[in-house]
Amino acid sequence: MKNHPTDPFVVSVFDVSHRIGDEREVHLDATLAERWGEGVAYVDKGQVVSVDLRLEGLHDGILVSADIDTTAIAECVRCLEPVDVPVQVEFQELFAYSPTEELEFSVHDNHVNCEQLVRDAVVLSLPFQPLCDDDCLGLDPETGQKLTEPREQNASTIDPRWAALEALTSTDKTTANKPAAKKRT
Ligand SMILES: [Zn+2]
């Protein structure tokens, strides 16, 4: 009763099928044949996705609970360094013995195919703005190097052009505090 030889996400449910209350646990490690995720963070082709499945025979189908564990790769949006993003997600879904209108998934030939559910759970959990660290300071605009301490501490070495920009910014703030003046136009 191992996984389907050709598809790692297809699991036999023969031994719990129509046995109400019977449970079985299955662990599967699937190596991705293609990349999952189109955004800045994705699970790469060749990455292993580990899934702990619990199969439970119910009256009208098999209840499948899954704990998924894998690693996505991404680029920190601040410093552009590569980041490993741990992915830990879960789902629970009822696979009907016979297809119905309410249930999207059903048992086929005593097997359930979890690929779409695993993939959706993983892809939906991927971060839109991955960070190498919550406190990542990003890149120094002058040197292009990753900052290891806040830029304010380098204020004495500030380029005069940046100083001019800072002056502009503070002017903006002053005007923003006086909305009445803007309305005169
Ligand atoms: Zn970073």
Give an overview in words:
By secondary structure, this protein is an alpha+beta fold. The chain has a domain at 10-125. 17% of the residues lie in helices and 30% in strands. It contains 3 helices and 6 strands. The chain has helices spanning 115-125, 160-176, 179-182; strands spanning 10-12, 23-31, 48-57, 61-75, 82-96, 111-113. The chain has a 4-stranded antiparallel sheet with strand order 2-3-4-5, covered by helices on one side. Strands 1-6 form a two-stranded antiparallel ribbon. The longest helix has 17 residues, at 160-176. It is elongated. 17% of the residues are buried. Residues 173-185 have low confidence and may be disordered. The protein binds zinc ion. Residues 76, 78-79, 81, 131-132, 136 line the site of zinc ion.
Concise description?
With 185 residues, the protein is an alpha+beta fold. It has helices at residues 115-125, 160-176, 179-182, and strands spanning 10-12, 23-31, 48-57, 61-75, 82-96, 111-113. A 4-stranded antiparallel sheet has the order 2-3-4-5, with helices on one face. Strands 1-6 form a two-stranded antiparallel ribbon.
